[in-house]
Design goal:
Radius of gyration: 17 Å
Strand content: under 5%
Helix content: over 70%
CATH architecture of the largest domain: Orthogonal Bundle
Structural class: mainly alpha
CATH class of the largest domain: Mainly Alpha
Distance between the termini: 54 Å
CATH topology of the largest domain: Arc Repressor Mutant, subunit A
Number of helices: 9
Largest sheet: none
CATH superfamily of the largest domain: Winged helix-like DNA-binding domain superfamily/Winged helix DNA-binding domain
Shape: globular
Length: 169
């Protein structure tokens, strides 16, 4: 793929990748930096793209890895956006107690501590669903799994977090 072709890829997906990263980091400057780095890495490794998932899913996978690397390097915590209440309420499987815990600022730190102790893929699926606002279909694509697998994995992660939060009350 030539530079001109890759410029078309950038033009088509840059805004979507930026919004994906912003939804996780809640930091516009960081999202801009990581979006640029995502496309730089994608350009360097475009030969590794096998077409087993959509190009967007592949770019989001690169972006997600960069976000996690940045977090590990700088120990940044994702800020809980107050508007998350509306998004979380749409998931009718989440209890009101969980929503209230999620929205309390002091509980946000606890949530992130618990989240980061979860084994993979639970931690990643939960993060992508709640903070990344991805649909189960998109999560499944990222992992090369079925949509049912994504739903079950998310549900199990959520149950572990709720259980751990209730145990720490």
């Amino acid at each position: 793929m030539g530079l001109k072709d890759f410029a078309d890829v950038y033009a088509e997906y840059a805004d979507q990748v930026f919004r994906f990263i912003l939804s996780i980091t809640r930091n516009e400057t960081l999202a801009e930096e990581l979006t640029q780095e995502t496309f730089y890495k994608a350009y360097l490794h475009i030969g590794k793209f096998k077409g087993e998932s959509s190009l967007y899913a592949w770019l989001c996978q690169i972006a997600k890895n960069l976000v996690y690397n940045d977090y590990k390097k700088n120990r940044r915590l994702v800020q809980v956006d107050p508007s998350i209440e509306d998004r979380v309420r749409k998931d009718n499987h989440i209890s009101e107690d969980f929503i209230l815990s999620l929205l309390k600022k002091e509980q946000a730190t606890l949530l992130h501590r618990i989240l980061h102790t979860l084994p993979e893929p639970y931690k990643e699926v939960f993060t992508l669903r709640i903070f990344g606002e991805l649909k189960f279909r998109e999560i499944a694509e990222l992992f090369g799994k079925t949509e049912s697998w994504a739903k079950i994995t998310y549900y199990r992660a959520k149950e572990r977090i709720v259980s751990e939060m209730e145990a720490r009350k």
